[in-house]
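Quick one, T. Sequence first:
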Amino acid sequence: MVPALDTAACLATAWQVTPDLSLRVVVIGGIMALAGWSGAQRHFPGRHAFLGVHLMLALWIAGTTAEHAAVDAACKATIAVLAWPLILLQPALWALFLHQYVRGDNRAPPARTWVPAGVSFALLAACAWSNGQHGWLYGPATHLGEPILGLPRMRYDYGPAFYLGAAWAYGWLLSATLIIVHAIAKCAPEDRRQWQAFLVMMMVPWAANIAYLGFGLRLFGGDPTPLSFAVAVVGFAWLIRSSRLHKVVPLSRRLLFSALPDPVLVLDSLNRVVDCNTAGHDLAGRDMPRDLPLAQWPVFGAALAELLTHGEPGDGTLVLQAGTLVLDVRCRDMGEGPRRIGRLLQLRNVTERHLAQARLAAALAERDAQLLQVAQLEAELREQTLRDPLTGLHNRRALALHFARERQRPGAQGQPLTLALLDIDHFKHINDNFGHAAGDTVLQALGRLLSEGLRTSDVVYRVGGEEFALLMPQANAEQALQRLRVLRDTARGHPLRPDGAPVTFSAGIATCHDGQRTLDDLLRAADAALYAAKAAGRDRFVLEAPAPSPASGPAGAP
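Structure tokens:
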């Protein structure tokens, strides 16, 4: 016969009492009681997968019990086909539980893991439930065999889907076994014996299933694999109970406590300190009782609780006792969101490093202040070398720098650049009649008038005893001549001489249009024009050659 889903056969079949019925009922009851005990514990990593293991195992054992108790072959085959997804889920849930438990993480595996696993499980389950159409799970040679212990037993003809499902289940069992081996390698020496014992218990389902499939070994005439899984579940429950691994202290607690000299605290979800290493007690100043709220711990408790409550999650720094104690805080959640069961805190005393950094910062700030002061002094000295000490105007060196900068300015090419040299008329007469101090006063006053009467782009320089220079960018000769006339009229309106007489000056003007003339070229041309202005009677302005004639008449002339 080809086993298929036939629920009517189970409604019509007779039922018989199996020799191991009492044992199976006790095992199922024990598994459900264990599931209830596990569910009553606080949230722990892998809790849902662990409860799923209990449920699937109880259903699996109940299914095999019903299959043995049924008399009709069609009903036995129906129960076997229905139970096949339970058989597939059992090892997968084992692996998921161990993965989450050992890692202390309730998060689901990444999609690249569970999506292929879910698809393959769905395909295998669909293949089992549709076995009547193809016989890939159990073939046509399946039949009701000779009675064992007085009960007829099914002999299944295993098809390719059966062996594919067996490989799928063995893969999960192998994964679960490797997780335990990894836990053995990472745990503290005092915990290793318990995990080794559980590894031995994990071998029981392997041995029972291999013995059944490979050698036909039966227990009370049936497959011993479900009951062997029950042995592993009970063994792991004993491990949890004896080592208190349901508490918020993770598997790595002892390793951290034994290896780190820094204070390490374990908090539950209510921020109570449920465990602390020796360094933590030393930092608090005395041995502290367990389950005491963190805020009540001396020295650092209140500040640390405040940081965890109002600060950003993750790491931080605590500065206590006016900077004499600085702690670097590393905080890691155990679980996420509403499933967070606690926190692991590592405190590192970084007071010396903090003080050293503070001293270094102060030294750097002092150095920066000194460098700024030096830079200011250098700027002042540099400015002093470019200024005339008497009038405060720029000097001949500044004229050379400004001229070169103006020539390099973007857009300056093709624009006129005019230089005018001014000389105070009869300045020697002022010095001889009123003294050099009066002459200095006249120079200062005229310098101010020239500076105030120019555009912001124009600059006035003192280039000699009573000689000034005006650099006028983007001004041609006529425009420069007009500005000089304005300056002349302004000077006439101010009695700069000690006797109240006006101060007059002569000027020579030179202009560069093509950008090819140097400053020396302009100075020579302007100086020649100035000489011509003085020779023509002073108090007048002359443009450079080829127009050597005076650009204006006597004082007051246009």
